[in-house]
Amino acid sequence: GESVGLHLPTLSVQEGDNSIINCAYSNSASDYFIWYKQESGKGPQFIIDIRSNMDKRQGQRVTVLLNKTVKHLSLQIAATQPGDSAVYFCAENGNRDDKIIFGKGTRLHILP
Amino acid sequence: DAGVIQSPRHEVTEMGQEVTLRCKPISGHDYLFWYRQTMMRGLELLIYFNNNVPIDDSGMPEDRFSAKMPNASFSTLKIQPSEPRDSAVYFCASSLGQGGETQYFGPGTRLLVL
């Protein structure tokens, strides 16, 4: 999907709980997917990526799940911390050219 | 590596003035991308380069915008003349290899055109 920032969906999570951020991607030809984190006043920062030959990949406290059947991507953050507050973007390589396509973004809000 | 470097970090200018944004990509990265981010439109790709050559400028809003990459370690995005609707955060990103891969973003330039 194209990135349109008119209204960002917001996910509010209690500190210490797990967060799950979902993304529906648009192009069935995409074979590479990336999650970015953007904190206030900063540029998007790479978190984790996954290729289409995998359905799960784990990093430090983060896990990305890929369901190609329904074109769905999710980011799971374990034991959410205040520092996880940010906008999270999924991105896909769509047409397999040099560009990546960013999703709309989801704002993660951590409750004390 | 210091990551992608952008300057200035903040720019306030008056309508009609020329604005030049600068970017130094990560050393060794072959691809450089310019994005614009606004609340209304989100993150938009303006133009990207491969080995200093512009590949796709279809995202450039209009002729007032131009970008150059004279060498592998430097790129500029110029707006002339600037307009209030150009107010946004402009990001530069670079990536290694064949593109469509992980892009590393700079801190952005926050532009305000009065």
Molecular structure report:
The complex is a heterodimer of chains A (112) and B (114). Chain A is 0% helix and 49% strand. Chain A is mainly beta and 112 residues long. In chain A, the strands form 2 sheets. In chain A, strands 1, 3, 4, 8, 9 and 10 form a 6-stranded mixed β-sheet that branches. In chain A, strand 3 and strand 4 form a beta hairpin. Chain A is globular and about 40 Å long. In chain A, 31% of the residues are buried. The N terminus of chain A is likely disordered. In chain B, strand 9 and strand 10 form a beta hairpin. Chain B is 0% helix and 54% strand. The termini of chain B are far apart. The chains are: A mainly beta (112), B mainly beta (114). At the A-B interface, strand 3 and strand 4 of A face strand 4, strand 5 and strand 10 of B.
Features of the shown structure:
heterodimer; A: 112 residues; mainly beta; four-stranded antiparallel beta sheet; 10 strands; 0% helix; disordered N terminus; B: 114 residues; 11 strands; globular
Sheet/helix structural class of chain B: mainly beta
Runs of chain A in which pLDDT lies below 50 for 5 or more consecutive residues are: 1-6
Beta content of chain B: over 45%
Order of helices and strands of chain A: EEEEEEEEEE
Topology:
The complex is a heterodimer of chains A (112) and B (114).
Chain A: E1 10-14, E2 19-24, E3 32-38, E4 45-51, E5 56-58, E6 62-67, E7 72-77, E8 86-92, E9 101-102, E10 106-111
Chain B: E1 5-7, E2 10-13, E3 19-24, E4 31-38, E5 42-50, E6 53-56, E7 65-71, E8 74-79, E9 88-95, E10 104-105, E11 109-113
Can I get a quick summary?
The complex is a heterodimer of chains A (about 110) and B (about 110). Chain A is mainly beta.
